[in-house]
Amino acid sequence: MKLLYKIIPWFFLALFGIEVIVVFMPKSESGLHIREFGRLPVLMNGRIQPMDSVGRNTLLQIRSTGDVPLELVPSWKFWHHAKKLKSSEWLLEVFFKPDLADTRPIFLIHHPELIDELNLGDKGIEKSGLRYYTFKEIEPVIAEIQKQGSKAASLEEKQKTAFHKQVLKLNNAVFVYQMMKASARPPSWNDFEKELASFKKTMAAGLEAMRGKEEGKSFDEALLKDFMVPMTEFFQLARDPNAGQSYPLVVPPTRADQKHEDWSNIGEGMIQSVRNSSVPPPIEYLATIASAYTQDRPAEFNTAVASYREWFLKEGFAVQVKKGNEEFFYNDTKAFVHAVIIYIAAFLLAATALLTLSSAPNFSESLRLSAYWLIILGGAVHTFGLVFRMYLESRPPVTNLYSSAVFIGWGAMIFGIFLERIYKLGIGSLMASLVGFVTLFIAHNLALGGDTMEMMRAVLDSNFWLATHVVTITMGYSATFAAGFLAVVYVFLGLLTPLLGKIPGGPGSTSTGPKLEIGKSLSKMVYAIICFATLFSFAGTVLGGIWADQSWGRFWGWDPKENGALLIVLWNAVILHARWGGLVRDRGLMNLAIFGNIITAFSWFGVNMLGIGLHSYGFMDAAFWWLILFIGTQAAIIGMGLLPMKFWRSFQFKNDNGGSSGKISSRSPSPAPAA
Amino acid sequence: MLDKFIDFWSSLRLTVVCLFAGLVLVFAGTIAQVDLGLYKAQNDFFRSFFVFWSPPGTGLKIPVFPGGYLVGGFLLINLISAHYKRFGFRRDKAGIVMVHLGLILLLIGQLATDMLSKESSMQLFEGESKNYSEDFRGNELVILDQSDSEYDRVHAIPEYSLEKNKTISDPKLPFDVTLKKRWVNASLVQADSKAPQNAIKSGATEGLLKDALVVPAPSVTDMDGRNTPTALVELSKAGRTLGTFLVSSYTGADQPFTVDGKQFNIAMRFARHYYPFTLTLLKATHEKYKGTEIPKNFASRVKVRNSEKNEDRETVIYMNNPLRYSGSTFYQYQMSAGEMASSMGSAPSSTFQVVRNPGWLTPYFSTILISIGLLFQFGLHLVGFIKKRYV
């Protein structure tokens, strides 16, 4: 038995460790080198990124997933890996096999009224209550979507209902999808390579005819007419204001007088070719890639992709190629998804460890250790994702709402590991895995807006302040949540189990943690973390004030986001002073700490939803109901925490054994913070 | 009795109550911004002793909650008396003393900022020079006496003073000014077929804007917007009316008129703050990230000229890098340059926010004090905490 208990932690570590290693291993490709294509750099959203990111972020916007499942698998068959179209491959289809791409179910519509309005009830496929439609299916109603879309767009933010928002989202998705189809080849050129070759032949003559017409000289009318067909398309594309925003700029600068970031779309690239009487190599490569893909000639496709890559390296785009490779790797490893999986496993192990603490102490210790090791493993993967992101962006860890979610979970994980190291109860791991999982899940949903590595607007473009103010304030959020979730654990353990009154480790126990009642240990943990939270949130708030003084001319302006930060500071100060003044003891402390969750959630998300103030660049509203739900559950848990002692199993147990309940908990009423 | 009094003021219970009241106040004041706008919410909740509530339909003002000054004041007294009573000076409490000293400094500094700081803006087109900035909210009625060939005499009457007194007669003023009508916020339009339905005649008898129609608008609540007050004023001298003028910050235009052969101008405009130096905008730069609307950089190259100090130098003001000069700070605030300006067909311009805040350094000092204090105190805890673990 003893041996088994020793093996269990190693088993779990190996199981998840191997999975991680497999993910990080280099992968080989047979057939089409789609991954190689996915690594090619383009410019979009003001930054160099790989093709893969373009596909991924676009799919996230349209379909809310990073890839397209090709078969329907019921969700209970979790062992069955559904065949998927990965982001790069989907992008290739959209670019060069648009007819096929049109049959992929990617348009997510979940508002029943909208489905009725568009008469789509009998079309599409349904999965877990969500309906997905192909472009073919919605093509007949595009005009209607646009009409509804512009109607919705004209409304004020406050008047927009869920229906309007869904319409806007769908309208945007259809728009982005159609733009994407025109971004890597002129839309009417089905065989890019062939069309380009014949266009090149008429280019010089066509230009001459065009100039002739302009200067009023004689010119070949028929030739000009043919020449102007593609040219009109190019001009249209070149003038498009959405280039680089809704779809990538695929043609790198080739002339000496161009700046390094002067990428252009295919239309502009072709017009430049005509002007210079020569087609730049990138367009030639793209044409070959396009035709080889359309006509299923893998060998040529692979060669063209490889030569295009070589060309980049030769022409001084080594940095861009490197960026493409690295970001592709980042996308491909999906570090945060794997961290979530490991956190969930750790949560289950830690919870089981706690529940079996008295019935099977040695088994429990073995599971506790497994959970702890998994938290460290998951934490390492989480850290990898975080640090790699920082490296890709050359930025401190928190630059937007998405990365703040990633960082809050990371901070809680660090706090959890520290607590677990000291107390060895499984509670640190429990909290770390819970907060880690929840925040990464939130981050995943925030990523549905598209690119999460967008460029920083001028006012925020200061790595110094991002590294100091933003990091400390987010650490403050993290610590407040950590304390709050520890308090939630306290309430549940107290009400439902006899554990809080127990001292871990009996005779023969392998536990080496402190010999203290678990309730007392939790109280100490929460207190310590709240001290940290006060330190970080205060320092962060004041640093923010100083930044504001530097950029807006005032230290404090009662802006909603500033007020949100101040609320956290004030609340943590309330908790500390209430405890120092003896106004609350353990149970009161816990309830106050849980209320800290509500305050932090409001400050983190709620103020953005107000949509006012200088900080409202993080505006989003879909999460409103989630926020309300979270606040509701926290309030309910505080309500549970306020139940009289006789309902607390932990303290009943103590009483049954003739212990003094007064020692463990306080009967002094805690102020009702939920009021 | 005195002991009880001191006990009350120095109790931790009072601290907790005040902090909690502060929390409720900040929360309510934040939510209220949605409807009231930042400025009004700030005045109602934070720069006040009480938050008032008026039952709808009545003019009553019932105090319902302590305002920012009251909560802050109580906290301040509480802090000071707690130190007097409880702490004294002990090495293991040095951190707490520092934290609280820092807090006191922060509170007082912010109060000073509230009372003393002035915010205004200065818009400059490329090549333009100015030695004044315009107030963000205040407006003034100015009467320019141009009878002297050497210099103009400017008589400025703040809008609020006009609003309060209705009639202003001052020996320094060439005439008496009577406020006949006032619109908190309005725009002006020409009297033609394109005028909106709610445009009304002003009843002015003199001046360039005599025939303009007034389009009243609701008072602005959002932070970036401002009211353009409009008024009908009558000028009179020794009881004899000189005519009524329509004046408005909407145009801010000077309206010339003559009295007894002397040349005058009248205008309602954004209140001005004058400086002993001149700023000239040399170049406004607005860059965006390629292919996006995300602003990458706003920068204004300016020349500062101060004849008193015989100074003439160039500097660049950009985001997060203001110009601090002779007690005022100039921040890059708005810009219309590059593509944006050329598409609107206007010359590039840059707007600076000008802040005069004598207490701007206090937060820096208090931050340092508090940070050291917190680090010291929690560090002490942490060491104790870890030591105890391993005993």
Sketch the topology of chain B as an H/E string, one letter per element: HHHEEHHEEEHEEEEEEEEEEEEEHEH
Strand order of the largest sheet of chain A: 5-7-6
Multimer state: heterodimer
Shape of chain B: globular
Report how far apart the termini of chain A are.
52 Å
CA-based gyration radius of chain A: 29 Å
Q: Which band does the percent of strand residues of chain A land in?
A: under 5%
Helix coverage percent of chain A: 55-70%
Overall strand count of chain B: 19
Let me know the largest β-sheet of chain B: 10 strands, antiparallel
pLDDT under 50 segments of chain A (min length 5)?
Answer: 613-620, 655-675
Largest protein interface?
A-B, 70 and 64 residues
Our count of helices of chain A gives 26
Would you count the extended β strands of chain A for me? 7
Number of helix segments of chain B?
8
Overall structural domain count of chain A: 3
How would you characterize this protein structure?
The complex is a heterodimer of chains A (675) and B (391). In chain A, a hairpin with a 2-residue loop joins strand 6 (125-127) and strand 7 (130-133). In chain A, the strands form 3 sheets. Chain A has a 3-stranded antiparallel sheet with strand order 5-7-6. A two-stranded antiparallel ribbon of chain A has the order 1-2. Chain A has a two-stranded antiparallel sheet with strand order 3-4. Chain A is built from 26 helices and 7 strands. The model of chain A is unreliable at 613-620 and 655-675 (pLDDT under 50). Chain A is mainly alpha-helical and 675 residues long. Chain A has 3 domains: 33-181, no CATH class; 197-317, no CATH class; 334-449 and 458-664, no CATH class. Chain A is elongated and about 100 Å long. Chain A has helices at residues 2-24, 34-39, 51-63, 87-96, 98-101, 112-117, 135-138, 142-153, 162-181, 192-214, 221-238, 266-276, 281-294, 298-314, 318-333, 335-355, 361-393, 401-423, 427-446, 463-496, 518-551, 560-580, 586-610, 624-641, 649-656, 661-664, and strands at residues 41-44, 47-50, 68-69, 84-85, 107-109, 125-127, 130-133. Chain B has 391 residues and is of the alpha+beta class. Chain B folds into 3 domains: 2-116 and 362-389, no CATH class; 118-130 and 274-356, Tick-borne Encephalitis virus Glycoprotein, domain 1, CATH 2.60.98.10; 134-272, no CATH class. Chain B contains 8 helices and 19 strands. In chain B, strands 3, 4, 5, 13, 14, 15, 16, 17, 18 and 19 form a 10-stranded antiparallel sheet that branches. In chain B, strands 6-7-11-12 form a 4-stranded antiparallel sheet, with helices on one face. A 3-stranded antiparallel sheet of chain B has the order 8-10-9, with no helix packed on it. In chain B, helix 1 packs across helix 4 and helix 5 packs antiparallel against helix 8. The longest helix of chain B has 28 residues, at 362-389. The radius of gyration of chain B is 27 Å and the shape is globular. Chain B starts with a helix and ends with a helix. The interface between A and B is large, with 70 and 64 residues.
